């Protein structure tokens, strides 16, 4: 009986059969990845704390190091410039040099620069160190989001994003208590040295927990050099304009006007370049997704409010009642510590399929608006205790406003799109914080001048009333005429600051209401991430 020979196997099939089985993908979910994620979270928290602590204690740092006020303002500005700029380019760098290698390098650089800063006396060297430290610190937040999106299983992804939300809610509020601790009880040097032991712990956790990806230096063949030459100066000019605007007089300063015009023009050119580049830092096409675009717009608005809401009471209490950071610490702790429970609770709520995260977001924004409306009734008699009700509302409002945004922005993202989403989200986050500080400071100053002029005009139109007030001050306090006039001027300035602070609260309430209305028309319903179930065979 003849037999028919089997046809030869196709070459591809032979090669597939001969090839060994593919090794499991590195970084599978487990204890090591949990430790690595915690290490990245710790690194981001210490970077955020360093930024916040040094900003709060800058007057004391200037006094200890003999730095003039104008010169000291640039220490904060150069840090913010490089920090926000680094957030733009860090995801591309992590994909090129590997996530673990790049993150550890950024933490090492950040800690070393912080350790040596107190020993530097030359102002130019101080600027250079703070700029490099901002560069290293800005590289860290994008890494946390990248790790959460890449390694967490679908059912836990929201909790990882909740950990990322700590950098927007927990870390900034913890800055005031830590600044008070080091300044009042230990020494200003520890404002910088506090990061070193935690950085060492973070490096160890990242090195043990995160998998080591291979180098991908071939990406440099398509390096977006035009994007760097356009994007970095654009962000730098805009950040400098926002940071120095109040000091230099905003539109009265030709420098500030030139920085705004040049920054906006270069930013437009940068975005055009990113649209056409084959390997961009930002994937502009992602903005076609309604939820991502809405999340970025709302994130900017929320962070603008979250900078103003704690900043107004702190500025008012320090200026009118002479509060030191130690006396302001309870207000910040009132919001910071409960976040450790509130954030996981909100993440669990959003992880329930029946819950629409859009309405969680609307509730959070409504609570923010309510706290701003209550703050608008402040008077010169308010002390720290009067602000606790506002802070209690913020305990629930902040996580309810941030976690749904993360869910809307990242829902449906593939691992390949994770770095682009991280670049978008973190750059908007970093820039919005700078905008929030500049807008709050500028709006407060502008409204303070308006109210001061109105009060002075009213007194000028009522000379009898002014004479009676001056006489009352002279009789009660035994002051001469010049001293009583100086005291009256001080009271006018305090009242103008109170009215300006109330105006800032009203503006932030309007912003929050506007963001609520945006929810009605832009975002679409999304569901919590879940593993894809295998389709049963019938």
Automatic annotation (TrEMBL):
Q: From the Swiss-Prot or TrEMBL record, state where the protein is found.
A: Membrane
| Keywords, alphabetical | Membrane, Transmembrane, Transmembrane helix, Transport
Please provide one cellular component term from the Gene Ontology annotations of this protein.
membrane
Pfam families attached to this UniProt entry: MFS_1
Which range is the signal sequence, renumbered to this chain?
Answer: none
TM annotation in the entry: 29-49, 102-121, 127-149, 161-182, 188-211, 223-241, 253-272, 292-316, 328-352, 359-378, 390-409, 497-522
> Where is each Major facilitator superfamily (MFS) profile domain found?
31-527
Q: Which GO terms describe its molecular function?
A: transmembrane transporter activity
The membrane topology term of the UniProt record is: Multi-pass membrane protein
**PANTHER family in the cross-refs:** MAJOR FACILITATOR SUPERFAMILY MULTIDRUG TRANSPORTER MFSC
The protein's name is MFS transporter, DHA2 family, multidrug resistance protein
Q: Which organism is it from?
A: Paraburkholderia phenazinium
């Amino acid at each position: 009986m003849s037999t028919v020979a089997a046809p030869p196997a196709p070459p591809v099939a032979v090669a597939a059969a001969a090839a060994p089985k593919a090794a499991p993908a590195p970084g599978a979910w487990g204890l090591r990845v949990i430790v690595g994620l915690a290490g990245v979270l710790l690194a981001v928290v210490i970077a955020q704390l360093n930024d916040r602590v040094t900003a709060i204690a800058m007057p004391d740092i200037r006094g200890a190091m003999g730095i003039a006020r104008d010169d000291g303002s640039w220490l904060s500005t150069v840090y913010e410039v490089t920090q926000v700029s680094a957030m733009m380019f860090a995801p591309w760098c992590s994909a090129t040099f590997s996530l673990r290698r790049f993150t550890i390098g950024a933490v090492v650089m950040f800690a070393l620069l912080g350790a040596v800063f107190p020993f530097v006396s030359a102002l130019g060297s101080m600027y250079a160190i703070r700029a490099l430290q901002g560069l290293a610190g800005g590289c860290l937040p994008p890494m946390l989001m990248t790790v959460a999106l890449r390694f967490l299983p679908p059912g836990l992804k929201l909790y990882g994003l909740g950990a990322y939300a700590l950098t927007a809610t927990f870390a900034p509020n913890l800055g005031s208590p830590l600044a008070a601790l080091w300044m009042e009880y230990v020494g200003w040097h520890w404002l910088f040295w506090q990061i070193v032991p935690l950085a060492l712990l973070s490096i160890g956790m990242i090195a043990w927990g995160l998998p080591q990806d291979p180098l991908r230096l071939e990406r440099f063949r398509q390096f977006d050099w035009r994007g760097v030459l356009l994007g970095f100066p654009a962000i730098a000019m805009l950040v400098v304009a926002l940071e120095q605007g109040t000091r230099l007089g905003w539109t009265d300063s030709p420098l500030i006007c030139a920085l705004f015009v040049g920054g906006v023009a270069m930013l437009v050119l940068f975005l055009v370049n990113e649209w056409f580049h084959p390997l961009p830092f930002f994937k502009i096409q992602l903005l076609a997704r309604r939820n991502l675009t809405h999340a970025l717009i709302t994130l900017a608005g929320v962070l603008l409010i979250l900078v103003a809401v704690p900043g107004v009471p702190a500025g008012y209490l320090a200026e009118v009642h002479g509060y030191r950071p130690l006396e302001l610490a309870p207000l910040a702790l009132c919001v910071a510590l409960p976040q450790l429970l509130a954030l996981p609770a909100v993440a669990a709520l959003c992880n329930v399929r029946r819950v629409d995260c859009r309405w969680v977001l609307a509730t959070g924004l409504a609570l923010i608006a309510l706290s701003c409306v209550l703050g608008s009734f402040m008077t010169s008699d308010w002390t720290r205790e009067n602000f606790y009700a506002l802070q209690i509302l913020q305990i629930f409002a902040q996580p309810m406003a941030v976690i749904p945004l993360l869910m809307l922005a990242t829902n449906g993202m593939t691992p390949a799109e994770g770095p682009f989403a991280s670049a978008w989200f973190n750059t908007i986050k970093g820039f919005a914080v700078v905008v929030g500080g500049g807008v709050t400071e500028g709006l407060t100053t502008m409204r303070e001048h308006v109210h001061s002029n109105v009060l002075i005009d009213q007194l000028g139109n009522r000379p009898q009333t002014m004479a009676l007030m001056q006489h009352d001050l002279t009789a009660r306090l035994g002051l001469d005429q010049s001293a009583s006039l100086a005291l009256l001027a001080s009271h006018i300035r305090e009242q103008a600051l109170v009215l300006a602070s109330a105006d800032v609260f009203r503006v932030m309430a309007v912003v929050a209401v506007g963001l609520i209305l945006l929810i009605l028309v832009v975002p679409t319903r999304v569901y919590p991430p879940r593993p894809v179930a295998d389709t049963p065979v019938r």
